[in-house]
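The following block was generated as part of the benchmark described in Methods. Ligand: protoporphyrin IX containing FE.
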Amino acid sequence: MKWTSSLAGLLSLSTLVSAQSDSESFVDADTGITFQSATNSEGVTYRLALPADASAEKAYDVIIQIVAPVELGWVGWAWGGAMTYNPLTVVWANGNNVVYSSRQAIGYYTPIQYEEAKYTVLKGTSVNATHFKFTAVCAGCASWADFDGNPTTLDGTSQVNFAYAYSTTPVDDPSTGESGFSIHDSVGHWTHDLGAARSDKFSSWVAANKASNATLRRHLRVGRYGY
Ligand code: HEM
């Protein structure tokens, strides 16, 4: 009996520890990349893969993947876990294309263009009858200057809080990442396990999934940042 109750104690402890993160391992068939993946109650999935040495000590690139119901007007990822003064990744479908927009909010109104985060779109970016899927390397999503200008880098060894937002209202001009859009219908937070998202395959995943511009152009219309 003693053994049983200690085992029960251990099990509940491990449940508590693993409950700190909302993300789990997921292998994406389109790219072969192993992501840490979290899906929110609205059915939007946020995925992340990091280089093996990612930490808070220096800036690093990340591979991101967002999968969302095609009927949503836009979905967003707030890298600092709040709306203002951190990189925002906003994506939407435009017919058979996926459009991304790099933004930063400097108040509780439409976020402005944010040029400090650069995206290289990868294979695994497409639209089907139900969902759109965006996959990219981002340089400048995991590091930014905070409100006071102090550099901040997400601790790639630990669990990190992110925020999401989405709207069912289409953006003003879906063909361009510079489009205006209106306020979210919902926002929320989740915890992502960055330590478990790290892999020494990071560089080979990026190299293997860089599509030719011609291929990407068929699937993607981007704003002024290009790819
Ligand atoms: C036209 C665009 C947008 C408008 C007008 C807008 C407006 C607002 C307003 C007024 C609030 C405060 C709500 C309250 O405190 O009750 C809020 C909160 C929030 N917004 Fe937005 N928002 C926009 C776009 C975005 C985007 C693109 C994201 C993320 C990618 C985002 C993430 C959040 C989050 C996480 C909160 C919760 C409070 C916080 O973190 O400060 N918003 N927004």
